[in-house]
Amino acid sequence: VWDDRIHRDTIAVARQAAQRLAGLGYTREIVASEFAVTFLDPADRAAGRGAFQRSPESVSGHPAYSARTIATALSLAGAGYGPILYWEFQDPRWGKASYGLRDVDGRPRATYAPWAHIIQTARSNPGASLSIEQGSTVFRLHKGTETLALILVNQTGEQTDVVFGQLHTAARGESFRQIVAHSQSCVDPAVGSGVSLAPYEIRILQKK
Question: pTM score, two decimals?
């Protein structure tokens, strides 16, 4: 189960496991099953609050939870994992947690829309790979050296600027158009030499 309740660095553990499997000669897919984020803030662990509980103020309804979830899932993909199974699609009525992309009544939470759009983008580019382009902020969907899309995630509560010229792969010098933006504020759809991400914003940019 790829969540943070065991108090480990999820991505570091995933990379170590992938390296060990490669050392054993394993070359097939590595499935992450299941994956979720429990604690949004480090203090949540000691305070005993997180997505393992269910309440109207659950952390899973916060845009920050969505950004953390999306960035972690993309980091797992960048570490060589896939398929990645999210826990869970909808909160069951008999459960006590609030991990669902939709709540118990079927209402979408903040993570639902960006997760769906990322899946749609990946499916429309079969055979593509995903790599970590810049920390846990910029992720690149590509086939070989050809960039197909960039997924930008701001996990902070402050504006974050992404300058394409500072990227270290073939994404530099390419032109993109915005196809999806998830933010608490209105954003400019024009994409030039870079973009400014609002707090907890997620954007998907497709190559022109």
Answer: 0.86
